[in-house]
Amino acid sequence: MAALSIVSHKLDLRAGAGITFFPMIIIAWTIERLSILWEEEGAKAAIRRWFTSLLVAVLAFLAMDIAVLQHLVFAFPELLLLVLAAILLLGQYSGYRLTELHRFSVFKK
After folding, report:
1. Do 22 and 51 lie in a common domain?
2. Can you give the pLDDT at residue 15?
3. Pick from 78, 79, 24, 30: which is nearest to 56 by CA?
4. Could you tell me if 19 and 4 are in contact, meaning their C-beta atoms sit under 8 angstroms apart?
């Protein structure tokens, strides 16, 4: 990141500084959140969260490297709305996970 920052400054490129600061901000936020989690829930929970975050990042990187997927996303940007819908289905929304509806459907009977 330091090399990119120096080269962009020498070439008088203003976007280089923004590119180098973005990963640092993400890393700082991640470290801050993990340290809070370490204090609140312990080392085991923090390490497990770190590992799952790393796994998701690696899987996302590998998915972004697929040529067909790159073409589809750049040719049809509205497909990103499907990604947003999947995130809403898998994440927390309205205080509970929507994927839990299937898990606890037995209680409806």
Report:
1. yes
2. 67
3. 30
4. yes
- The residue range of the domain holding 108 is 67-109
Query: To 5 degrees, how large is the angle CA 54–CA 60–CA 66?
Result: 145
| Residue bearing the bigger pLDDT, 54 or 91 | 54
Residue position matching structure tokens 């020498």: 10
For residues 81 and 53, state if they share a domain.
no
**C-alpha separations of 72 from 44, 53, 56, 58, 66 in Å:** 39, 26, 21, 20, 10
Count of Cβ atoms closer than 10 Å to residue 106 Cβ: 7
Number of domains in the chain: 2
User: What pLDDT is attached to residue 42?
Assistant: 92
Contacts of residues 32-40 at CB distance under 8 Å and 24 or more positions apart, as own/partner, are none
What does the alpha-carbon distance between residue 86 and residue 65 come to, in Å, rounded to a whole number?
20
